[in-house]
Design brief:
Blueprint lengths: L7 H8 L23 E7 L12 E7 L7 H6 L4 E3 L2 H8 L5 E5 L5 H10 L3 E5 L6 H14 L3 E4 L6 H11 L8 E6 L26 H5 L25 H10 L1 H6 L7 E8 L9 E8 L8 E7 L14 E6 L4 E4 L7 E3 L1 H6 L11 H9 L9 H20 L6 E4 L4 E2 L3 H6 L16
Length: about 450
C-alpha cells in the first residue's frame, strides 16, 4: 500500500482523459507552511457538506457535481467558483488554489475523492459514513497520519451538546460500569417499499446533464436507474451502508468514543426480515461484543432498524436514539447533538451530574482545524474505527447468517474462519482504471 507522492504522469495521467492540465502540487507539500487566515474550499457533491462553505473565513473556489442540475443552485450562490463534473480534473487544474474539500457524495464515492485530496495535501471534510468498506476506512485513517491534514467525518452531533456532555460524564467517571448500549432507528427508509429485489435494475435513459460514468467512481459501472440516483443509492450494499451507516454515526458516536470501544470481537445478526443479496433488509437487529478495555468491563452494543423492529420497553428512546445500561445511572437520549438524560425521572432528580459547555459547531471546528487553531473532534483517527464497526455490521447483514455469530480479531482486523466475510472487508475490487486510489 505504500507509494511515493503522486505525479501527473504516474497518477492523474492514467485516470484523466487526454489533454488534462498538469497537476500542480500545493505549497504545503513543497514545504510552505506559512499560516493562512482563510480557507479556499472546493465543494464536491452537496448537502450537508455544503455547510462548510457557509462558515466564516472560507472562500468557495470550486464546485464539483456529476449532475449538472445539482450544480445550478451552488453556482448561483458562488458565482466565482469554477464548476466541474470530474473531481480529478478539478484537482488537476486547481491544485494550487484549493486548501480543503467538502465532500457530500454517495457513500461509495467518498473514498477516492478524499484519498486523492489528502495525497495532495488537502484538508477533507467527508460526510458520514466515512467509507463504504472496512478497507477504505482503514486507508483513510492511514492517510490522515501520512499526509498530516485536518480530516473530519460529517457526523455533526459530534461537536454538539451530546459530545461535550459525554466528555464531561466520562471524565467524572459516570460512564464507568456501562455493560450494554442499545441503539435504534425505527423510521422508514427508501428501499422498504421495493419488495423482493432479484438483481440490479436493467436500466433507464440517463437524465440530461448527468455524467453517469463519473457517478460510479471506483464502483463497477451499471446502467442508470432511478433506484440509484438521486438518493436511492443508500439501499444497495455496493453503493451505501443502509440505515446503520446513515444514522449510526449520529446515534452511537459518543458512546463508542467515550466508552473507548474500538473494534468488536464478535458480530451477530440476531434478527433479520426480508434478507436480500442486493439491498438492505426491511429490518435488522445486530449485536456487537466488545472486550474489556483495561478496568472497563466488556460491552454489548445492540442495533435495531426497521419501523416495527423496536428494542424492548425500557431500552428505547423515541423513534431513534440510544440507552446506556449497567453504570451508576441509566442514560437515554436521541440522535445528533441531543443530550442524554438519566432515567427514570426519580433517579434523575437525585443524580449529581457535572455541568459542561459547548464550543464551535462541527463545520467551524473543521475550518479552524484546517487553519491550525483547533483539532477535528471527529477526525478519522476517531471516526474511522466507528465506521469500521458499522462496516462489520453491514457484512453481517449482507451474509444474512441469522443467529450465527461472526468472530472477529481486532488485532489482525480479520474475521476468524470465514473467508467470505473477510472478502467483504475489501469488496468489491475497484473497476479498471481506478486501482491507483488504493495505493496512495
Amino acid at each position: 500500500m505504500k507509494m511515493s507522492k503522486p505525479t501527473r504522469r504516474r497518477f492523474l495521467g492514467t485516470t484523466l482523459v487526454a489533454g488534462a492540465a498538469p497537476m500542480v502540487l500545493p505549497g504545503r507539500l513543497l514545504g510552505d507552511e506559512s499560516p493562512s487566515r482563510s480557507l479556499n474550499v472546493a465543494l464536491v457533491g452537496g448537502a450537508p457538506a455544503r455547510n462548510v462553505c457557509r462558515q466564516r473565513r472560507t472562500k468557495t473556489v470550486a464546485l464539483c457535481n456529476v449532475d449538472e442540475r445539482h450544480l445550478r443552485g451552488p453556482q448561483e450562490r458562488y458565482p466565482n467558483a469554477r464548476p466541474y463534473h470530474d473531481f480529478r480534473k478539478m484537482l488537476d487544474e486547481m491544485g494550487d488554489d484549493i486548501d480543503a474539500l467538502a465532500i457530500g457524495t454517495p457513500d461509495h464515492s467518498h473514498f477516492p475523492i478524499a484519498i486523492l485530496g489528502m495525497s495532495m495535501g488537502k484538508h477533507v471534510f467527508v460526510e458520514k459514513p466515512l467509507a463504504n468498506t472496512f478497507q477504505e476506512a482503514q486507508l483513510l485513517m492511514d492517510a490522515e497520519k501520512k499526509y498530516k491534514v485536518a480530516a473530519q467525518m460529517g457526523n455533526q452531533g459530534h461537536s454538539g451538546g451530546n459530545y461535550h456532555q459525554f466528555k464531561a460524564y466520562a471524565e467524572a467517571g459516570l460512564l464507568d460500569g456501562v455493560t450494554k448500549v442499545v441503539s435504534h432507528f425505527n423510521r422508514g427508509r427508501r428501499w422498504h417499499p421495493w419488495g423482493d429485489v432479484e438483481g440490479y435494475p436493467e436500466g433507464e435513459p440517463v437524465p440530461e446533464g448527468l455524467h453517469w460514468d463519473l457517478w460510479h467512481t471506483t464502483a463497477e459501472e451499471r446502467p442508470f436507474s432511478g433506484r440509484y440516483h438521486p438518493g436511492n443509492w443508500r439501499g444497495w450494499y455496493r453503493y451505501g451502508m443502509g440505515a446503520i451507516g446513515d444514522w449510526g454515526p449520529h446515534i452511537l458516536d459518543t458512546a463508542h468514543r467515550f466508552l473507548e470501544l474500538g473494534l468488536p470481537t464478535e458480530v451477530e445478526l440476531v434478527h433479520v426480515r426480508r434478507h436480500n443479496a442486493y439491498i438492505f433488509p426491511l429490518e435488522t437487529t445486530l449485536r456487537f461484543s466488545f472486550p474489556a478495555r483495561g478496568d472497563k468491563p466488556p460491552v454489548e452494543v445492540y442495533w435495531y432498524d426497521g419501523t416495527g423492529n423496536r428494542p424492548p420497553a425500557g431500552e428505547r428512546s423515541g423513534s431513534a436514539g440510544k440507552v446506556l445500561l449497567g453504570g451508576k445511572y441509566t442514560f437515554a437520549g436521541g440522535t445528533h447533538g441531543s443530550t442524554v438524560q438519566v432515567v427514570p425521572e426519580a433517579a434523575r432528580e437525585e443524580a449529581e451530574l457535572p455541568s459542561f459547555s459547548t464550543g464551535s459547531n462541527h463545520y467551524q471546528n473543521f475550518v479552524l482545524a484546517a487553519l491550525g487553531e483547533e483539532t477535528c473532534r471527529s477526525s478519522f483517527d476517531v471516526a474511522g474505527s466507528l465506521n469500521q464497526v458499522f462496516n462489520l455490521g453491514v457484512i453481517a447483514q449482507e451474509l444474512g447468517l441469522e443467529g450465527q455469530p461472526l468472530a472477529f480479531d481486532p488485532s489482525r482486523k480479520q474475521f476468524v474462519d470465514n473467508a467470505r466475510a473477510n472478502e467483504l472487508l475489501a469488496y468489491p475490487p475497484p473497476r479498471e482504471g481506478w486501482e491507483q486510489f488504493y495505493r496512495l
